[in-house]
Amino acid sequence: MVVALDVGGTGAKCALVRPDGTVVHAERHPTGAERGPDAVVGTILDVAEGLADRARADGLTPRALGVVVPGVIDEAAGVAVWSANVGFRDVPLRKLAVERLGLPTALGHDVRAGGLAEARLGAGRGTRHVLFVAVGTGIAAAHVVDGSAAVGAHGAAGEIGHILVRPCGPRCGCGRVGCLEAVASAAAIGRRYAELSGTPGSTAAEVVERAVAGEELAREVWSSAVEALADGLATGQALFDVQTIVLGGGLVRAGRHLFDPLRTALRERMTFHREPRLVAATLGDEAGCLGAALLALDSVEDR
Ligand SMILES: [Zn+2]
């Protein structure tokens, strides 16, 4: 049994998980990032300790703790280097957790952990080379080979959202112009449609709905986002040569209205590269928490 926490900007998904990935108990807590980083760390440690106590009360033995957070994470050092969403800057979270709970602790990145879970327990199960791409407010990825996600030299691997796809495109949150995320994230699609149509507050889901209903402007916005996403995925495939690309995040709810044109656009971009299988994530918003559990398990046993 391991204790797993996926701490996001607004909420934390927390669970007790068996080695086979079965969730025995799950709870959710608000992150309360507005209270400052110290209070958030306090909540993380309280919730983790509460879950470990709960396991013991049920006669189970918690063997390790896994915590994942967004941002730049130095997994080897166990330090949350930079995480704007939860206000962390150089927080030695692993050390603090070990001191408080006395359990071996793994610290990881939320999207990389989600990709790890999809590759091992979800849509990528049974394939050795998986690229997990989460398309929501932003776009981020995890490259998983043989059940391990590449971390990078600086804890920042997988930032596929900042591949340049439209040199004359809109400005990205990172400051540069034309990043994939600035064109094809759910947030960018809603924003683009709002700009062109003069309908403020449009969402990507509404754009898809209107496009399917045959509205010309929505079709244009949707198809240019799909084309940009295909450019990003084709770059991913050129770099990683995977068997399976697992798409997760809010945009996946568009179903075949996303996958049909995206598969076609991706196929058009393949020359000598092999076309990857393109599938939807199956673990939903539990992926990060399950990934945290896998990191915890990996830290105490040889798979
Ligand atoms: Zn960017």
UniProtKB/TrEMBL annotation:
Q: Which domain of life is it from?
A: Bacteria
User: Matching InterPro entries, A to Z?
Assistant: ATPase_NBD (IPR043129), ROK (IPR000600)
In the record, the note on similarity to other proteins reads: Belongs to the ROK (NagC/XylR) family.
Q: Which UniProt keywords apply?
A: Kinase, Transferase
- Give the protein name, as stated in the record: Glucokinase
Q: Where are the transmembrane segments?
A: none
Please name the GO terms that the record assigns under molecular function.
kinase activity
Q: Known Gene3D superfamilies for this protein?
A: 3.30.420.40
Task: Cite the Pfam families for this sequence.
Answer: ROK
